[in-house]
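[job 0412] stage=fold_complex status=start
inputs:
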Amino acid sequence: MRQGAAWFALAAAVPLSAAALPSWEAPPAVQAAARSDYIEHCGGCHGVAGSSAPARVPELRGRVGWFLCTTEGRDYLIRLPNVAHAPIDDPEALAALVNYVVFRLGGESAPAGARAFDGAEVAVLRRSPIVRASLLRERARLVADIRRRCPAAPASLADYSG
Amino acid sequence: MPDHSSDARFERLLRRLAGHSSRRGILARLGATIVAAPVFPLLPVSHAQSGKDRSVRGKTGFARTAQTKDDTQCDYWRYCAIDGSLCTCCGGGVHTCPPGTEPSPTSWVGTCINPDDGRAYLIAYRDCCGSSACNRCNCDNTDRATEIYRPSTNNDIIWCFGVSSMEYHCSTAVVVGTAE
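[job 0412] stage=fold_complex status=done
writing structure:
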């Protein structure tokens, strides 16, 4: 009887924990292409593994996932001019690149339950890149909002000042 | 009269065909062909859609004539998009800076084909900074390089960001991954 109850508890717990983990599932070929695209188009400045220190470039490794804490922060990752205008026409491929950045380079920083980007979302967002606002001010505003709503977000998220 | 006889022959042929084949059979085969079509890799089409031609033939003249033996020459395969002095001629190596200079943590990334295995590799062109220009073995190759408005693939930029001095000395070519 106890064993039966344990099995039941386990069965109930599995879907919950699976849903709570931030995740991006994709076939190995898609993940390899996403990594290759990242290195080719972003890695020169952001670093092959997402770490650009000591250069004054936003650090992605272990941090970028926090932007998924707010809807505006999530949209910002696609509306960044170099992402929206990236020479990758296929929105699915661009979504895979950003998912690689957020869920692989960002590691544990994506909030629990954060959902991966898909091509449809990316196709819509990349049509409205940030062009009129100052990127630095916009980033500072978003980070302040993220730190209010997700108190676990590290202060280092605000480090980048250009 | 000859016309009638050819009509009759054609009618007999059609009747025989109709009598020996079932429409369902034809539909089933047609259906199977339509369903199965996407299973077969339609290579030319998917290749065109991906927009990435990594083949040697798809590259510029550089990839067709590149060599893999001498890294002090401009036609060494990793230098397909280098702009500047080769560090191999300046006391450094293909991926090491000469003594007294500092590697930049930022770079731009090119895609070069190794003629030995025919594969495309991602190459980070890291500048060595902090000493006056070496000015030996100056090369300017521009495979896939873009104008300055796409800085991440422009090779005219001095990439000495994040180092103590912006003074450019020479460039290295580091393999950072395979291009997929």
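[job 0412] summary: The longest helix of chain A spans residues 2-20.
[job 0412] exit 0
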